[in-house]
Amino acid sequence: MKFKKNVLLEKEPEKDIRAYVLHKHKADKAGLHYDFRYERNGKLYSWALPKGMPPIGEKRLAIYTEPHSMEWKNFEGKIPKGEYGAGEVEIYDKGNLEIIEEKPSEKITFILNGRRYEGKYSLVRLDKEKWLMIKSSK
């Protein structure tokens, strides 16, 4: 006698959901850009996006910067002159992302669920600091 699998007893794999924030940063030196940050290992890993988040099918340069403390998830305000990143910072978008694939030295693919931005994105490494941010679907 053959038994069928009981699909009601099977658990779906846990989703890897993490916090993310997109800062609009009017830096004194670098000018207006956006800082994409997502939670990994108790820190916010960060990329500066000179032209902001890409629309579907477009690639945008993303420059890797040093990880920031988790306090940056809620930071808005002025970074004083003389300090790294001096200028005005505001939270432009905030929410969660679901990790689909995470190879930190090569590629990170995720589904973004923010107030302004949603969809499937990838960060693809080009060299030490240069990455591409690509939006592949809504």
Q: Which key features would you list for this structure?
A:
138 residues; mainly beta; 8-stranded antiparallel barrel
Summarize the entry for a quick read.
The chain is mainly β and 138 residues long.
Protein architecture, described:
This protein is mainly β and 138 residues long. It has one domain. Helix content is 0%, strand content 59%. The chain contains no helices and 9 strands. The protein has strands at 17-27, 31-40, 43-49, 59-68, 77-79, 87-103, 107-114, 118-125, 130-137. It has an 8-stranded antiparallel beta barrel with strand order 1-2-3-4-9-8-7-6. A hairpin with a 3-residue loop joins strand 6 (87-103) and strand 7. The chain is globular and about 60 Å long. The model has no long low-confidence stretch (mean pLDDT 92).
Q: pLDDT under 50 segments (min length 5)?
A: none
> Quick one: overall form?
globular
As for the number of domains, it is 1
Q: Give the percentage of residues in beta strands.
A: over 45%
The biggest sheet, with number of strands, parallel, antiparallel or mixed sense and barrel status, is: 8 strands, antiparallel, barrel
User: Between the first and last Cα atoms, what is the distance in angstroms?
Assistant: 46 Å
Tell me the Rg in angstroms: 18 Å
Helix content: under 10%
By secondary-structure content and strand pairing, the structural class works out as mainly beta
How large is the count of helical segments?
A: 0
- Rounded average pLDDT: 92
Physical arrangement of strands within the biggest beta sheet? 1-2-3-4-9-8-7-6
- How many β strands by DSSP? 9
**SSE order, as H and E?**
EEEEEEEEE
